[in-house]
Amino acid sequence: MEAARAALNGGIAVLEIVRSTPSVFEVLQTLVKEYPTRVFGVGTVLNAEDARNATNAGAKFLMSPATVKDIIDEVQDDEVLYIPGVMTPTEMFSAYNAGAKIVKIYPVSALGGTRYISAIMKPFPYIPMVASQGITIDSVGDYIAQGAISVVLSDAIFDKEAMSQNNFSVMHQLAKSAALQGKNAVER
Asked: Ramachandran region of residue 141, left (φ > 0), alpha (ψ -120 to 50) or beta?
Protein backbone atom coordinates (compact mmCIF):
# COMPACT_ATOMS: atom_id res chain seq x y z
CA MET A 1 0.00 0.00 0.00
CA GLU A 2 2.79 2.45 0.89
CA ALA A 3 4.58 1.74 -2.38
CA ALA A 4 1.41 2.60 -4.31
CA ARG A 5 0.98 5.79 -2.29
CA ALA A 6 4.60 6.76 -3.01
CA ALA A 7 3.99 6.35 -6.74
CA LEU A 8 0.69 8.25 -6.65
CA ASN A 9 2.15 11.06 -4.58
CA GLY A 10 5.01 11.20 -7.08
CA GLY A 11 2.56 12.05 -9.85
CA ILE A 12 1.45 8.73 -11.31
CA ALA A 13 -2.13 9.22 -12.52
CA VAL A 14 -2.89 5.66 -13.67
CA LEU A 15 -1.84 2.73 -11.51
CA GLU A 16 -2.06 -1.01 -12.13
CA ILE A 17 -2.10 -3.18 -9.03
CA VAL A 18 -1.05 -6.74 -9.81
CA ARG A 19 -3.39 -9.55 -8.84
CA SER A 20 -0.68 -11.18 -6.70
CA THR A 21 -0.68 -8.19 -4.31
CA PRO A 22 -1.86 -9.44 -0.91
CA SER A 23 -5.52 -8.44 -0.38
CA VAL A 24 -5.46 -6.82 -3.83
CA PHE A 25 -9.16 -5.95 -3.93
CA GLU A 26 -9.11 -4.34 -0.47
CA VAL A 27 -5.98 -2.39 -1.43
CA LEU A 28 -7.75 -1.24 -4.58
CA GLN A 29 -10.85 -0.11 -2.66
CA THR A 30 -8.71 1.87 -0.23
CA LEU A 31 -6.72 3.58 -2.97
CA VAL A 32 -9.86 4.44 -4.95
CA LYS A 33 -11.24 6.19 -1.85
CA GLU A 34 -7.98 7.96 -1.02
CA TYR A 35 -7.25 9.09 -4.60
CA PRO A 36 -10.63 9.62 -6.28
CA THR A 37 -9.16 11.50 -9.26
CA ARG A 38 -6.73 8.72 -10.18
CA VAL A 39 -7.40 5.72 -12.40
CA PHE A 40 -6.77 2.26 -10.97
CA GLY A 41 -6.71 -1.15 -12.54
CA VAL A 42 -5.78 -4.71 -11.73
CA GLY A 43 -3.10 -6.57 -13.64
CA THR A 44 -2.47 -10.26 -14.28
CA VAL A 45 -6.20 -10.92 -14.27
CA LEU A 46 -6.65 -14.41 -15.69
CA ASN A 47 -10.33 -15.27 -15.20
CA ALA A 48 -13.79 -13.74 -15.23
CA GLU A 49 -14.26 -14.08 -11.46
CA ASP A 50 -11.19 -11.95 -10.75
CA ALA A 51 -12.38 -9.50 -13.40
CA ARG A 52 -15.73 -9.16 -11.58
CA ASN A 53 -14.04 -8.79 -8.19
CA ALA A 54 -11.68 -6.12 -9.55
CA THR A 55 -14.55 -4.23 -11.14
CA ASN A 56 -16.60 -4.39 -7.93
CA ALA A 57 -13.59 -3.05 -6.01
CA GLY A 58 -13.33 -0.01 -8.30
CA ALA A 59 -10.99 -1.03 -11.12
CA LYS A 60 -11.42 1.02 -14.28
CA PHE A 61 -9.19 -1.29 -16.32
CA LEU A 62 -7.98 -4.86 -16.28
CA MET A 63 -4.76 -6.23 -17.79
CA SER A 64 -3.65 -9.76 -18.56
CA PRO A 65 -0.40 -11.20 -19.88
CA ALA A 66 -2.48 -13.04 -22.51
CA THR A 67 -5.90 -12.70 -24.09
CA VAL A 68 -8.61 -14.28 -21.94
CA LYS A 69 -11.82 -14.62 -23.94
CA ASP A 70 -13.95 -15.04 -20.80
CA ILE A 71 -12.81 -11.63 -19.59
CA ILE A 72 -13.51 -10.01 -22.96
CA ASP A 73 -17.04 -11.47 -22.79
CA GLU A 74 -17.46 -10.46 -19.13
CA VAL A 75 -16.59 -6.77 -19.58
CA GLN A 76 -17.81 -6.17 -23.14
CA ASP A 77 -20.67 -3.90 -22.06
CA ASP A 78 -19.10 -2.58 -18.85
CA GLU A 79 -17.37 0.72 -18.31
CA VAL A 80 -14.22 -1.26 -17.52
CA LEU A 81 -11.48 -1.43 -20.10
CA TYR A 82 -9.88 -4.83 -20.67
CA ILE A 83 -6.33 -4.72 -22.04
CA PRO A 84 -5.20 -8.23 -23.01
CA GLY A 85 -1.56 -9.14 -23.51
CA VAL A 86 -0.35 -10.05 -26.98
CA MET A 87 3.01 -10.84 -28.57
CA THR A 88 2.45 -11.65 -32.21
CA PRO A 89 0.57 -9.97 -35.05
CA THR A 90 -1.91 -12.87 -35.02
CA GLU A 91 -2.56 -12.49 -31.30
CA MET A 92 -2.95 -8.74 -31.69
CA PHE A 93 -5.41 -8.99 -34.55
CA SER A 94 -7.37 -11.79 -32.85
CA ALA A 95 -7.69 -9.85 -29.58
CA TYR A 96 -8.81 -6.74 -31.44
CA ASN A 97 -11.37 -8.71 -33.45
CA ALA A 98 -12.64 -10.35 -30.25
CA GLY A 99 -13.46 -6.91 -28.83
CA ALA A 100 -10.28 -5.58 -27.20
CA LYS A 101 -10.09 -1.81 -27.65
CA ILE A 102 -6.42 -1.65 -26.57
CA VAL A 103 -3.79 -4.39 -26.44
CA LYS A 104 -0.73 -4.76 -24.23
CA ILE A 105 2.45 -5.74 -26.08
CA TYR A 106 4.06 -8.16 -23.63
CA PRO A 107 6.92 -8.84 -23.02
CA VAL A 108 7.99 -5.92 -25.20
CA SER A 109 11.64 -5.75 -24.18
CA ALA A 110 12.14 -9.42 -25.09
CA LEU A 111 10.51 -8.77 -28.47
CA GLY A 112 12.82 -5.90 -29.44
CA GLY A 113 11.48 -2.95 -27.47
CA THR A 114 10.83 0.23 -29.44
CA ARG A 115 11.85 -1.42 -32.71
CA TYR A 116 9.09 -3.99 -32.26
CA ILE A 117 6.49 -1.30 -31.48
CA SER A 118 7.53 0.59 -34.61
CA ALA A 119 7.36 -2.52 -36.77
CA ILE A 120 4.03 -3.78 -35.41
CA MET A 121 2.41 -0.36 -35.79
CA LYS A 122 2.88 -0.49 -39.57
CA PRO A 123 0.21 -3.13 -40.27
CA PHE A 124 -1.94 -2.18 -37.27
CA PRO A 125 -1.94 1.61 -36.90
CA TYR A 126 -5.59 1.49 -35.80
CA ILE A 127 -4.97 -0.77 -32.77
CA PRO A 128 -3.92 1.21 -29.68
CA MET A 129 -0.96 -0.44 -27.94
CA VAL A 130 0.44 -0.31 -24.42
CA ALA A 131 4.09 -1.36 -24.11
CA SER A 132 4.80 -3.55 -21.08
CA GLN A 133 7.77 -5.20 -19.40
CA GLY A 134 11.32 -4.07 -18.95
CA ILE A 135 10.76 -0.43 -19.89
CA THR A 136 13.04 2.16 -18.32
CA ILE A 137 11.95 5.63 -17.32
CA ASP A 138 14.41 7.14 -19.80
CA SER A 139 12.83 5.20 -22.70
CA VAL A 140 9.23 6.34 -22.18
CA GLY A 141 9.52 9.03 -24.86
CA ASP A 142 10.94 6.55 -27.37
CA TYR A 143 8.03 4.14 -26.90
CA ILE A 144 5.47 6.93 -27.26
CA ALA A 145 7.29 8.29 -30.34
CA GLN A 146 7.15 4.84 -31.95
CA GLY A 147 3.39 4.57 -31.46
CA ALA A 148 2.66 3.17 -28.01
CA ILE A 149 -0.19 5.08 -26.34
CA SER A 150 1.14 4.22 -22.89
CA VAL A 151 3.82 2.24 -21.09
CA VAL A 152 3.86 0.05 -17.99
CA LEU A 153 6.68 1.11 -15.67
CA SER A 154 6.16 -1.18 -12.72
CA ASP A 155 9.74 -2.53 -12.72
CA ALA A 156 11.15 0.97 -13.14
CA ILE A 157 9.13 2.65 -10.38
CA PHE A 158 8.83 -0.24 -7.97
CA ASP A 159 12.55 -0.93 -8.00
CA LYS A 160 13.36 -4.33 -6.47
CA GLU A 161 16.02 -2.95 -4.11
CA ALA A 162 13.82 -0.07 -2.97
CA MET A 163 10.92 -2.47 -2.43
CA SER A 164 13.04 -4.89 -0.38
CA GLN A 165 14.20 -2.00 1.81
CA ASN A 166 10.77 -0.31 1.97
CA ASN A 167 12.48 2.79 0.59
CA PHE A 168 9.35 4.68 -0.42
CA SER A 169 11.23 7.94 -1.00
CA VAL A 170 13.16 6.28 -3.85
CA MET A 171 9.89 5.03 -5.36
CA HIS A 172 8.42 8.52 -4.96
CA GLN A 173 11.37 10.04 -6.85
CA LEU A 174 11.21 7.38 -9.58
CA ALA A 175 7.47 8.03 -9.96
CA LYS A 176 8.08 11.77 -10.15
CA SER A 177 10.67 11.25 -12.89
CA ALA A 178 8.39 8.82 -14.75
CA ALA A 179 5.44 11.24 -14.61
CA LEU A 180 7.61 14.02 -16.02
CA GLN A 181 8.95 11.77 -18.80
CA GLY A 182 5.41 10.71 -19.66
CA LYS A 183 4.16 14.29 -19.74
CA ASN A 184 7.05 15.37 -21.96
CA ALA A 185 6.56 12.40 -24.30
CA VAL A 186 2.86 13.14 -24.79
CA GLU A 187 3.50 16.86 -25.38
CA ARG A 188 6.03 16.23 -28.16
From this structure: alpha
